[in-house]
Amino acid sequence: MAEETTILESSEMILNMGPQHPSTHGVLRVKLKLDGEKVLDAECIIGYLHRGMEKIGENRTYPKYAPYLDRMDYVAAVTNNLAFLEAVEKLLGLECPPRAKYARTMLAEFQRIASHLLWLATHALDIGAMTIFLYCFREREEILKLFEEIFGARLTCNAFRVGGLTEDLPAGWLEQAKAFTDIFPSRVDDYEGILTENRIWLQRTKEVGVISAANAIDIGLTGPALRASGVKWDIRKAMPYESYADMDFEVPVGTRGDTYDRYLVRMQEMRQANRIIRQCVEGLPGGDFKAKTPRVIKPPLGEVYHSIEGPKGEIGYYIVSDGSTIPYRVRVRPPSFMNLQALAQLARGHYVADVVALIGTLDIVLGEIDR
After folding, report:
1. Which of 49, 55, 75, 234 could disulfide-link 251, Cβ–Cβ 3.0 to 4.6 Å?
2. pTM higher than 0.90 for the full model?
3. Strand arrangement of the beta sheet that strand 313-321 belongs to
4. How many other CB atoms are found less than 10 A from the CB of residue 111?
5. Distance of alpha carbon 117 from alpha carbon 137, whole angstroms
6. CATH C-level class of 52-369
7. What is the mean pLDDT of the chain?
8. Rounded to whole angstroms, what are the CA distances from 3 to 6, 356?
């Protein structure tokens, strides 16, 4: 009987996916160990961007550092900006006026929808669904127009200032925001009509990349990836910031913790975000849009860690102040970096084609990982 022949004296093969690969959502290199098409192990190799974002923060004043953070997760600039400025406000002991809090909450939820729309568009495209990409970009464009009216930018929005907003909401802006909330639920129905019961979508997502609640917590998952495993943890509810304590909304959770559940959770999150925006529009208080702040931002000696619920999960900033105008130490806790750790566990036992779906289901941005 002839002996089994192997390539290079091994039945396993090492395959590099990326770093120049459209489905890795940036310059990510995934080193796959394969047995035929089946994934035995996956190693994520990062560090291709060389950004030095935290060190930049230790060489800029507090207000001048904020615009750099718009470029970290460049599809969720508003929430990245908000988390840092809230941390600075904690150091200063500064309270924003109610109008600023409501407006910040509203804009953060618009950013959540815009980020989830980009996720859904690219995730579906990775798996082979083209139409949904065009639908999602149609609604995302309307949100970017609203951002442009306020910030003068569509993507990397230097959204806020220490103590509140850059300037008050433009005339007619609230009416446009309300018009969006009127139409958006029907658009989410369209997305779900295309995908939720689609047999190909179900085959590509159900029981793919299952992670239990215990494992999700152990590995440090946050955001929709954690809630899809049945863990009802949302910073907006657990430790309310801005005006979330005044808002009536639900926290969607999954049961199986697979790629399909992560899809369903994000779809429901878009509906809940729309609900929050509507409440902000209808209940926006009058008054000042910015607190009175010193001309030079110089927090007292101390340190702070503050985090918020970004579209991808917990985005947090640890800042050490030495009493000067420049932070002594800045450290970022980005959700994409933490969530990427789960890829190896999710991929084992699945196929190469599933790795594409699993990278998409984590919703990573490499600008945040290689910060």
Report:
1. 234
2. yes
3. 302-310, 313-321, 329-333
4. 26
5. 7
6. mainly alpha
7. 91
8. 10, 35
Q: Contact 315/79 with Cβ under 8 angstroms?
A: yes
Matching residue, tokens 């290199």: 29
- Identify the bridge partners of residue 319 per DSSP, sorted by sequence position: 304, 330
In the structure, how many helices (H) and strands (E) does the chain have?
Answer: 15, 8
As a whole number of angstroms, the distance between CA 335 and CA 313 comes to 5
Pick the closest to residue 226 from 97, 361, 75, 68 (CA basis).
361
The pLDDT confidence band at residue 9, using thresholds 50, 70 and 90, is: low
Q: Which is it for the CA torsion 225, 280, 291, 170, positive or negative? A: positive
Residue labelled with tokens 């152990």: 218
CA–CA dist 336, 348 (Å, integer): 20
Backbone dihedral region of 264: left (phi > 0), alpha (psi from -120 to 50 degrees) or beta? alpha
pLDDT in tens, 270-322: 999 999 999 999 999 999 999 999 889 999 999 999 999 999 999 999 999 99
* Domain ranges for the chain: 52-369
Q: How far apart are CA 184 and CA 143, in angstroms?
A: 11
* Over residues 344-354, mean pLDDT: 92
Rounded to the nearest 10°, the torsion over CA 4, 8, 11, 15 is: -150
Of 2-16, 22-36, 54-68, give the range with the top mean pLDDT.
54-68
- In the DSSP assignment, the letter for residue 170 is P
